[in-house]
Amino acid sequence: MNTGAKPALSLIGRALRLLSTREHSRAELERKLEPYEEEPGALAKVLDALQAKGFINEARVLESVVHRRASKLGASRIKQELQAKGLEPEAVAEAVQALRATELERAREIWRKKFDRQPADAAERGKQMRFLASRGFGGDTIHKVVSGADEE
What we know:
Number of domains: 3
Domain RecX third three-helical: 103-146
Structural class: mainly alpha
Largest sheet: none
Organism: Rhodoferax saidenbachensis
Helix content: 55-70%
CATH class of the largest domain: Mainly Alpha
Order of helices and strands: HHHHHHHHH
Mean pLDDT: 91
CATH architecture of the largest domain: Orthogonal Bundle
Shape: elongated
Radius of gyration: 21 Å
Number of helices: 9
Function: Modulates RecA activity.
Domain RecX first three-helical: 14-48
CATH topology of the largest domain: Arc Repressor Mutant, subunit A
Protein name: Regulatory protein RecX
Low-confidence stretches: none
């Protein structure tokens, strides 16, 4: 008798479903799949197999996050996201260093899309600065963008 319920997915099935939507780090998959592990060690075996086949790739995860988020966020916010994914600290540091090189240009572009004019008063200036800070840009960068300093 069919009750209409879907059959329970295996750990590998769940992992592949998650990986089909976007890149996931091994730490992310462990966190998400841990509740479904029925026997100790089964999850580690599944993740080892997926990593051996190239389905889990830390470099691709890092590249994916940077590519998707760099046009919207500052280096410090992206760094937080990469660290939350459990990626290697050295790889995260390299990616953040590369992002810092383009920080000012990216902040200007985001600011232009949202405001596109210098603040008229202190309240508007504060609003613009808080917006950029919430996106993860540093204080020096925010000051240069909002004040229009060294505009190309």
